[in-house]
Amino acid sequence: MLEILQYIHNFLFLITIGFSIFYSVKYRRERNPNYKGFMQAKLNISMGIMLTLLSLYPLLIIAGSSVGIVIGAMFLLIGLFNLFAGIRNWTIYKARLGSANK
After folding, report:
1. Which of 48, 59, 61, 98 is deepest in the core (most CB within 10 A)?
2. What pTM, to 2 d.p., does this model score?
3. Could you tell me which of 28, 40, 25 has the C-alpha nearest to residue 97?
4. Nearest residue to 89 via CA among 9, 35, 32
5. Which residues contact residue 24 at a Cβ distance below 8 angstroms, ignoring those fewer than 6 apart?
6. 8 A C-beta contact, residue 77 and residue 22
C-alpha cells in the first residue's frame, strides 16, 4: 500500500514539475503584461501544488526525524502561500483579460 502511495505521489510531483516548466517558459516569452501576469499566476499555482506535494514526503513517509518535520513544514507553508497568491492573482488577471476582450 505504501508503494502505491509513493508511485501516486511521484507521478503527481512529476506532473506539477511539467506544468511549472511549461508555464515558466510561456511566462518568459509573453509580451502582453496582462497575459504575462496570468501565466505567472498559473506558475504560482503549479509551484504551490508542487511544494505542497513535496512537503508531504518528509512529513508522512520519513517518521521520527525532527529535521524532516521542520523542512516539511517550511515547504508546506511556502507551498500554501504560493497557491494562495497564485489563485488570488489568477482571479485578478482573469478579470482583466475578460474585460479587455469585450
Report:
1. 48
2. 0.87
3. 40
4. 35
5. 43
6. no
Query: Please, is 2 exposed, middle or buried when counting C-beta atoms within 10 Å of its C-beta (0-12, 13-18, 19+)?
Result: exposed
Position 89: which residue type?
A: N
**Tens digits of residue pLDDT in 21-71:** 999 999 999 999 889 999 999 999 999 999 999 998 887 777 777 888 888
Amino acid identity of 62? I
Measured distance CA(83)–CA(85) in Å, rounded: 6
Residue pair 52/83 in contact (Cβ under 8 Å)? The answer is: yes
Place of cell 510531483: 13
Q: For residue 4, give the C-alpha cell.
A: 502505491
**C-alpha cell read off for 71:** 523542512
